[in-house]
Amino acid sequence: MAKQVKQLDRVIIRFAGDSGDGMQLTGDRFTQESAVFGNDLVTLPNFPAEIRAPQGTLPGVSSFQVHFADHDILTAGDAPDVLVAMNPAALKANLGDLPKGATIIVDTHDFTGRNLQKAGYDANPLESLGDANDQLREFSVHPVDLTGMTVEAVKEFGLSRKDAARAKNMFALGLLSWMYGRPTDSTIAFLTKRFAKVADIRDANITAFKAGWNFGETTETFVVQYEIKPAPMSMGTYRNITGNLALAYGLVAGGVQSGLPVFLGSYPITPASDILHELSKHKGFGVTTLQAEDEIAGVGAAIGASFAGHLGVTTTSGPGIALKSEAIGLAVMTELPLVVVDVQRGGPSTGLPTKTEQADLLQAMFGRNGEAPVPIVAPQSPGDCFDAALEACRIAVTYRTPVMLLSDGYLANGSEPWRIPEIADLPTIDPAFATEPNHELVDADGNVTGTDFWPYLRDEETLARPWAVPGTPGLEHRIGGLEKGEGHGNISYDPANHDFMVRTRQAKVDRIAESLPPLEVDDPSGRAKVLVIGWGSTYGPIGAGVRRVRRAGYDVAQAHLRHLNPFPKDLGEVLKRYDKVLVPEMNLGQLSLLLRGRYLVDAIGYNHVRGLPLKAAELAEAIGNLVADAEGIAVDLTTPSTATEPATEPATEEVSR
Amino acid sequence: MTATDLGLPGLRSGVDLVPTNDEPQTAKEYTSDQEVRWCPGCGDYAVLKAVQGFLPQLGLRRENIVFVSGIGCSSRFPYYLDTYGMHSIHGRAPSIATGIATAREDLSVWVVTGDGDALSIGGNHLIHALRRNVNMTILLFNNRIYGLTKGQYSPTSETGKVTKSTPMGSIDHPFNPVSLALGAEGSFVARTIDSDRKHLTAVLSAAAAHRGTSFVEIYQNCPIFNDGAFDAIKDNDTKADAIIPLEHGRPIRFGAPDASGLGAKGLIHDSETGGVKVALVADVGEDAILVHDAHNPDPTTAFAISRLTDAGYLNQSPIGIFRQVERTTYDDQARSQIQTAQQTAPGTPQDRLAALIGGGDTWTVA
């Protein structure tokens, strides 16, 4: 039968099922198909910390949300337009996030008494569809026996019923791929490769995938197919990329661009382990990965490798940073290059291992004994993790210092289309190893009697000390955690020297600001009285919230900090230009505290620590309230304005379809 | 998962890949300009002198030697040697040395540590360095006390020891460092004494030649907080009975000599415990005496011998090389994997980076 085709500008789909149902894979494949198709997209995987949480229960639900559009978008979306629920628990756990009118595609197969009970349902909600007591009456519900049809479709392969049923996620993917006109070649190629060694599983998955597509095309359950055109993007070659992958590539690039072998010392921890996994594949680039006995040994080995002339890197999450703190202090004192990656997760303590948060900023800033300044760099989107990692390598090597790279769980596992950079456009990093003595020995009469090497004689511009690696004759020297005498670097307990060295280490980090570009402030009208400033992964939600406010006809400025320490030189001046400064963060106000302390600005926090990204709609409301306050006007965000909308702003961001 | 054949070349000496120096070297060249600041009479002086005297014999380029230490009295050691060095943080020296040794095959890497540094706060790194068999030599100065923090009991102090932190006597059971190293499957495990320069130098020489983690416990007297801890094995009147000398291929005999000129006591297998015990040679006959086999792949007997060390005041202790076996090293294998991967990697690093980041499913917007 002929199907109707409807144009949409954007859709948010959430795949949800039991943690063993393969929802992350399903979401990832749908994302790849959409990326290849040319939509802009942002994803939000959300899964429990347990590998297999109790089956069929609410805590065991794993989901993957993908927002794709025919225009530039910034977030994974506040609320799904479509929910694919593979069991009662997945339905129940996600129902609260759905707006009125949302589409629900539900696999009826697992709606058994026992599963309903596990999910906390007294009665099967699918049996009362259309009745007066229909709990799902606000939604457009499509009950489909996805599992049953999958088992039927793959029976020729002679799999056990359990194995056959496991292909149901591919059936669901096939159905959704049909519904949104996704290209299917990449998924078939993926399945062929993934299951190359198990022919029957491979064939069953491909068959289920195709069966799902065909079901959509023939069934009368679905009468509409949707079309979301490719988004206009600037010229270039793109790929879809997660933050962890981009970050790992950025570290490889840091090695290539500096000519230094990368040495990763790491201990597995969620959500950072994928960086270890990825880097361990790149030995061809001279990358060494050492899976250490603990977090401390990971950073210790990296420091040792840096001393030996490699680019030392350690990757972890917040709890690991706590363990590494003393060693990071050693790297501060010995002034060795070191990149410390913190993929932040919910805390404190073990906290929420698989959820996102930005609450390690102050730990990165201050979490060491003594005055131990460490530069901090934060990426703002998954693809941006590449550039941020390269920037962290640049600072570490150029200034001989540990650098904190603050990613988070949302960036790590989320993905977006990434324009692949040209290698020629990447910055190069000069390790500038010391090769010669740098100091003259003078006798009592002032005659030069020879030369020697002073490991703490600094570069005048960067204040960096020389990096002399073992094997360099004549530059033998000792470094360590005890205070160093200025220049010669021997142990010194002299009070004035300590005061000088404390200030010098701080001055060196402050000096990095000289190499940073001015802060970019997005203030299209130039009339805004409110500035919204953030850091890290809140870039997307803040940007989306700002767009909503502007679209309703109000002025608001946005700035985003890549460098948290030191801040850009003009930050204080930028803050003073605005009457109100709003600082949205997934913590209780850590950047706010720094801005208030440094610039005496009345930074207003907007803070949620729910383990999830901030929501654009809520942010827009907070921004709107502040605009109303600053300008003494009433703000109504519901009516789009036509007069003040800048031409470059996409009109449809975050508008419900 | 299947194991991959690493195809490593034959095992080498611990310093085979380190550049050598053709010119004769002197102890003075290895002495830094820093004033040594240990207490008068400290056993550390003797070890420092022995090391400064031994390093020239190694014949390596001085700039290719790295000493790494943790925290404690002994950990000041690197400052006094004119090589590359790092005085790091408490207990972490083996992890830092692991990074150095894995990064660079052309360096001779040494760790200087103490009983508190290596066995208490850094115990984890020590056992994992031994397990991995990273090519480095660990010198553990064991004075059985905390010196730098002024006299608390250490993980090798005897039970009942009265110290500042144990006024009623320590209730901690001590570690036997050699037993611990053997338990962690150390491929080279030895014990020597600060005051016996000849033995110390011989053990250092064998340790440096060994490829893998060489673990050397050095009994070292602290004259301030634990003076006399090793008197029984140093005193001319008692040492013949206190020291059980281990020499590969020789019967393990000690005590006052009998008519044959060898020690009247020896070690024999103990059928009751499965371990070893001391017996009079006259009682059991020469043939029953154990012949020391440091190269035995099975560490059981070496471990049994290590148990003859007194856990309380040291009246008896085996001294020498307990174990010296060949095992592939972590760092050689790590570098071998990288070399293998690099051999098949085409083009310049920039070309390969472009291929890497440009891989996967891509699309082009014109």
What distinguishing features does this structure have?
heterodimer; A: 657 residues; alpha/beta; Pyruvate-ferredoxin Oxidoreductase, domain 3; Rossmann fold; 4 domains; 7-stranded mixed sheet; 6-stranded mixed sheet; 20 helices; globular; B: alpha/beta; 12 helices; 29% helix
Write up this protein.
The complex is a heterodimer of chains A (657) and B (366). With 657 residues, chain A is α/β, with parallel strands linked by helices. Chain A folds into 4 domains: 4-228, Pyruvate-ferredoxin Oxidoreductase, domain 3; 239-425, 3-Layer(aba) Sandwich (Rossmann fold), CATH 3.40.50; 439-498, no CATH class; 521-631, Rossmann fold (3-Layer(aba) Sandwich), CATH 3.40.50. In chain A, 34% of the residues lie in helices and 20% in strands. Chain A has a 7-stranded mixed β-sheet, with helices on both faces. Chain A is globular. Residues 642-657 of chain A have low confidence and may be disordered. Chain B has 366 residues and is of the alpha/beta class. Chain B has an 8-stranded mixed β-sheet, sandwiched between helices. Chain B has a 3-stranded antiparallel β-sheet with strand order 8-9-10. In chain B, helix 1 (43-58) crosses helix 6, helix 3 packs across helix 4 (123-132) and helix 5 runs antiparallel to helix 10. Residues 5-9 of chain B have low confidence and may be disordered.
- Low-pLDDT residue spans of chain B: 5-9
Strand content of chain A: 15-25%
Radius of gyration of chain A: 28 Å
Query: So what's the CATH class of the largest domain in chain A?
Result: Alpha Beta
Question: What is the CATH-assigned architecture of the largest domain in chain A?
Answer: 3-Layer(aba) Sandwich
Number of strands of chain B: 12
Main β-sheet, spatial strand arrangement of chain B: 2-1-3-4-6-5-11-7
CATH topology of the largest domain in chain A, by name, is Pyruvate-ferredoxin Oxidoreductase, domain 3
Structural class of chain A: alpha/beta
